[in-house]
Amino acid sequence: MSDKFDVIVIGGGPAGYHAAIRAAQLGLKSAVVDAFIGKDGKAALGGTCLNVGCIPSKALLDSSKQFFNLSHNLPAHGISVENAKVDMTTFIGRKDKIVKQFTGGVDQLFKVNKIVSFFGKGKLLKGNEVEITGNDGKKQTISATNVILASGSVPIELPFAKFDGKNIIDNAGALDIDKVPKTLGVIGAGVIGLELGSVWNRLGAQVTILEALPDFLGTADADIAKVAQREFKKQGLDIKLGAKLGKAEVKKDGVHLVYTDKDGEQKLVVDKLLVAVGRRAYTDGLLADDTGVKLDDRGRIIVDEHCHTGVDGVWAVGDAVRGPMLAHKGFEEGMAVAEWIAGKAGHVNYDTIPWVIYTEPEIAWAGKTEKQLKDEGVPYKTGSFPFAAIGRAVAMNEAIGQVKMIAHAETDRILGVHMVGPGVSELIAECVVAMEFKGSSEDLARIVHAHPTLSEAVHEAALAVDKRAIHKGN
């Protein structure tokens, strides 16, 4: 058996590597066990996020946006480009280079912080021991005072549309399509479906998105979702709501789909099918039977408000536990657990976690929606402001969307902020800070915002809560 560690983290994704680095910073002898294999066949830290999720998808979104701008946005600036083409080898290669840069960066951070890496599948045994099965099949056991389970999540596979890596693909497959398909079907109008559907739509694919639920982006504020849906339609994304897939069969001429909607059974043939119906906690084979760690009915590790499993010295964070499957949520949980282990005051405020969808326009929000507050019987007031009245947005030719702020009707405390428009993935941070410090809409209304900037939309929305926006009739 190897030397005993203070902390062993199973999983080298966002939650896991943040936990390990913070633990090492606090003087704890730390190790990480991770089984992810990169595109080049070598072990790669960073989990889904860095390898086949957050980072590579944003790289493709940015590249596809540049191409889309050539024909759709630059002419308005007096700039014209004829016969623009995409070299797919370079297009995908740029994404791969960025991924390698960041996974290599995590590896370097581990070396700097003297974190020991074990590559293989980790399994928690009784007594805080971890069995590691290497990619070569060899096994070894290490132990620690504390074990942090950060095993992440995997795509949900439909029984009648199983992934084959070529015709029916998951998010990883959609990042490596080597030729723009004429038609692409997407199952699920969530974050992954919208982002990756947007990538290939911008490059010329005819994209049809089938969403089983009757409402578009039901987790977002209804006003914001309505604007986003309208803009996606203008871009050519064909989003069919209340459309439930029943069958997907691969034939010579493509993937044949059978789905039902309000008008009955429908058929559709696409060149490729991306199944993006969500993700599930990846806890398969993670726990020996006698560890005492419990799973809920969705396969997630059961933890308390401090991410503790109830078993002495065993913690769990990230996608494998309750809460939103967001990388930044995992970041904070991982660091908080490391601090709790070291006897410090870790902190995660789940009420102010921002959500972002990196489409064009971007969508971002934090806090409660108007519907949630109405259902809870909380008195509230709202203020909205359009980017069409923001000078910087108009100058950028991206004057689409709005900022909506919701405050308590009596205390004026900000309860939620919802945005759709240019750069809102960055603008939401100001609102999260205000909410974290229990700020009011008046606080934001009285803060000087630079002119001309997109942030003025936040300022004006705050003013609009009390019907005193300057550049909008209240």
Can you offer a commentary on this structure?
The protein has 3 domains: 220 residues, FAD/NAD(P)-binding domain; 110 residues, FAD/NAD(P)-binding domain (3-Layer(bba) Sandwich), CATH 3.50.50.60; 113 residues, FAD/NAD-linked reductase, C-terminal dimerisation domain (Enolase-like, domain 1). The chain has 13 helices and 21 strands. Helix 1 packs parallel to helix 8, helix 3 runs antiparallel to helix 4 and helix 3 crosses helix 6. The longest helix is centred in the first third of the chain and has 25 residues. The N and C termini lie far apart (70 Å).
Overview features:
single chain, 474 residues, alpha/beta, FAD/NAD(P)-binding domain, 3 domains, five-stranded parallel beta sheet, globular, disulfide bond, redox-active center
What name goes with the CATH superfamily of the largest domain?
FAD/NAD(P)-binding domain
End-to-end span in angstroms? Answer: 70 Å
| Total of helices | 13
Class of the largest domain, according to the CATH hierarchy?
Answer: Alpha Beta
Share of helix among residues?
Answer: 25-40%
| CATH topology tier name of the largest domain | FAD/NAD(P)-binding domain
Spatial shape: globular
The fraction of residues assigned to DSSP E strands is 25-35%
Largest sheet: 5 strands, mixed, barrel
Name the assembly state: single chain
Strand order of the largest sheet: 1-2-3-4-5
CATH architecture identity of the largest domain: 3-Layer(bba) Sandwich
Average pLDDT value?
A: 97
In total, the number of strands is 21
Q: Runs with pLDDT <50, length 5+?
A: none
Domain Pyridine nucleotide-disulphide oxidoreductase dimerisation: 353-462
Main location: cytoplasm
EC number: 1.8.1.4
Subcellular location: Cytoplasm
